[in-house]
What does this fold into?
Amino acid sequence: MSRFKNFLLTTAYLSFFTLQLYGEGWTFLNTARIGATDFIKKHPTYDGRGVVIIILDTGVDLGTLGLTELPQGGVKIIDVQDFTGEGDIKLEEAEKGNENDEQFLKHSSGHRLFGYDKLALHPADSLYYIGVVEEKRFKNSVLPDVNNNGKEDDVFGLIAFKSDTTWVTYIDLDGDGNLQDEEPYWDYKEQLKPITFRGRDPEVSLNLATFAVNIFPDEKRINLYFAGGDHGTHVAGIAAGYKVNGQEGLNGIAPGAKIISLKIGDSRLAGGATVTGSMLKAYEYGIDFAKKYDGPVVFNMSYGIGSEIEGHAQMDLILDDFLRENESLVFCLSAGNEGPGISTIGLPAAANRALTVGAMNTKENARDVYGASINYDLLFPFSSRGGELNKPDIITPGAASSTVPPYSSRENKWGTSMAAPQATGAVALLMSAAVQQNPPLPINGAILKKAIKNSAIPIRGYLPLEQGSGVMNVPKAFEFYKDYIAEKEQKMILGYEVSTLSPIYESEEGEAAYWRFGGYYPDKLHKQKFYIRPVFPEDLSADERNNFYRAFNLKTTDPWIKINKSSTYIRGEKAAVVEVYFDKALLNKPGLYNGKVIAYRKGGFLAGNKPENKEFELMCTVVVPYTFHEQNKHTYQSGEIRLKPGELKRIYFDIPLGASSAAIRLGQAGTKHTKLKAYLFTPQGRESEHRLYLNTEKESAHIIRLLNDELEEGIWELVLYNDFRNEENAYATVKISFSGLEIIPAQINEVTFEHGENPQGSFYVRNQFSRRVDASVRGQIMGVQRINYISDDSEEYEYLFTVTDDCEKVEFELEMDADVFNLFTDFAINIMDMDEEVLLSDGLSYRSIKITFYPPSSGDYILKMVPGFAAHKATDWSARLTESYFMFKRTKIVSSFYTFYPKVKKEVEFEIDGTIPVAPDRFYVFGEIWLDEQDVNKYRTIVPVVLHTSLKDY
It folds into this structure.
């Protein structure tokens, strides 16, 4: 017996409802591209009704038009919770008092509230608890003036007590110190009653935000919930908005769905970062709700950071465990905005069982939102790509004009954050349709994901690691889902786990063949084995597991992928084994090769290898780089490159042995005018801080230079992109070249002093390459520096530092091991003055970051780190912190002009033009010597200078 209700409406109502819900097409919030518009037009009640969408984000504003009501009547947002602590107000037992025959309750701060004795409700035990909401606590948030009256120092008192039935609160919403004119509030989900602070002039000032309360008497706190940023509200409108901006027919994907908002991001931190346990607690809360709710539930989380070890972060694994234990759920996650480089899927979007969504740019949206003319749909360049993972799973439109709180004017946004709620709303439609069948269809998350992936339609010009299975197709996915359920798939097998050799992981095991290592890949003599294991339902018996049998036809998508068999099978729990190798003759040009081995079910639903019959995929990626050697003079020169608007081109190059610096030149092709940008990615898929921009109306070429400390060994990726908003094709050439100066020793640690003379020193240079190098040598003593090794186990770490009058800027470099970074869902950093005013906010996207702070004045400052642990509580973490103080007045290092001949070791002498400063205790003096080559590429090789002059050293 299904626990889901069957919904029946009369034909007359359906016709009226269809007319109400859909008028003209709205390309600003595109519901047509994934088939949602047609799906609801044909089946008006399949609009998400009966389904709850749980949104983990910055919070969803309760008063925003488009998120207040359901098409069928009733309140759309049925619960709100804040897991960040941003809105927490401490409660304490109130002190009673009397003044001029008026009774009041007093807070320990001295704040008093009158009129409590005249309220309609009173505590059953005569105990009142009191709290104070001070606006100044929100000074670093999005709402420093909660009632928008022009002041940021208002104080609003509140009381809470247990009435005869439950806990209740009264809030002094106008801040006049009297509760007599206030109404009672209960936990939001009990009353569905939002809160608005008063005190503004409504004729000239907006109500910026709508609040709600939740009371936690055991913890002696009240939480004042609000949307700490516009992101979550925007996401909610895409997934389930109804009459967005009050417009009839302007709806999200699933307008009939209800919403639960779980706030996981704290607006006081950069990017609304998550804090320790906020993400985990939100999922636990949502799962607990889903277990009790008589209907389907789907989660949306458009949140995350970069992956260091894709699929192996703590939160990745937690989400996979949740989905394994709760088979009726679907988690829709944004893939990340770290593209267009490959190997950029974010954390926790790398979770294997989640539905990971990339962002496409529809031609209609490009036209009506951005005024761009493109002939076919594109992927947005920022959309994260896969590689070592078979991700993303699908793509959906990733730009929309949607709902935002009144304090925001940014209703147009793009990102995979906007693509995920498209998929979430679509899943809600499928769930809504499923439970309205007669009899209702059971809801199974893994089978829904299978139906969604197999029914998706690829767009032209993109590889599987870029778009996954393609664009989601709601009507087709529902047909597939009905077929799978009719075959009782959810009772037999939920999917497959794939494992294979993957040297990028320390364990050398991953889910895809990913070869980006010096041009090596498995050949006919060294085949790669894939192991495919069945994933059974949790309640399948041992006998049923043992008796399972399924056979597959194997097909490759590309001729360079070779397999050792055309079919295979799985019997019981034993893994099937498929051997794969790659045809060298077909991989003879540098570039990115990506394809799949697809397994189709033998004797499936339809004859032949049809999409509905797809069972599993083996992702294969080979990167063949350009290489550099004496024969090509360590230089690559492209021919003319032509890119249409929205088109990109990838160039892969391997750093040659002995390289000390690189130059990458993006140049004009002939006399053709062009605008073009290029992104540079390290071998690990991390975007370099260097970008190239070419506008030939201003310059004929743009050159970036990679210094010796930046030249990470391995295969780099350069991605050229012609912005889709450009009206013309882009034409350019690319030149990549290297210099090879070996520095001996690699770092200067000592100089010599002669009485009355400047400090002097020397080092040796060996030119490793075959061309002559002419270089000028000079440098600077820049300031003082020290390295600290942090070892901590707290949720906040504060580091006090002092800036002197002669300091221009302070640079902090924070770096941690990948295994440590995997513990987090965010890592926020604030630099504050001693009044805790935030002067700079940032955060880690990957395991290292460099932050530059220009102090407004000399004095003391606080570097505050807020690691957001995936677990409930903080645990041991460690990092290396390098702090560098750059002086306004820097001492020159002078040398001369040198010629370095191939393979010859030559001594270079230098002199420090002045005295070396004495470093403060536990600091050292630092600087750099630069070898600037005189050729057109202007290579620079850096020699670090570290001189220990402190009287108290380490």
User: Anything to note?
Assistant: Residues 89-197+214-223 form one domain. The first helix runs from residue 11 to 21. The chain has six domains: 11-84+228-491, 89-197+214-223, 496-624, 635-739, 740-786+887-954, 794-875.
